[in-house]
Amino acid sequence: MRRCFDERSTAFRAAVAAAPSLDVQVPTCPEWTLFDLVQHLGEGRRFWAATVAAGPAATSPAKSASEDVQYLVEAE
C-alpha cells in the first residue's frame, strides 16, 4: 500500500512540475484549477501525516495554498 501511495505521489508531483501553469483546468473536475487540486491534496496529506504520527487527537496547523504547492512539488 505504501509503495502505491509513494508511486502515485511521485507521479502527481511530476505532473504538477511539468504543467505549464497552476491555472490550468483539471480535466476530470473542470471547475477546479491545478492549484485548487494541489491545495486540496496538500491539506489532506498533512492532516493524515499528523494524525498517524501523533495519534487520532493530532491536528495540523492551517497552511497557505502556496505552501501546499511547494510541499507537493518538493517532497521526496
Poorly predicted segments:
none
Q: How helix-rich are the residues, as a percent range? A: 55-70%
What is the count of helical runs?
A: 3
User: If you average the pLDDT, what whole number results?
Assistant: 81
Strand-residue proportion: 5-15%
Mass-distribution shape = globular
Number of separate strands: 2
The H-and-E topology, N to C, reads as HEEHH
N-to-C CA distance: 17 Å
Q: Tell me the radius of gyration.
A: 13 Å
Strand ordering within the main sheet: 1-2
Class from helix and strand fractions: mainly alpha
How would you sum up the major sheet?
A: 2 strands, antiparallel
Description:
This protein is mostly helical and about 80 residues long. Helix content is about 65%, strand content about 10%. It contains 3 helices and 2 strands. The chain has helices spanning about 1-20, 35-55, 65-75; strands at about 25, 30-35. The chain has a two-stranded antiparallel ribbon with strand order 1-2. A hairpin with a 2-residue loop joins strand 1 (about 25) and strand 2 (about 30-35). Helix 2 crosses helix 3 (about 65-75). The chain is globular. The mean pLDDT is about 80.
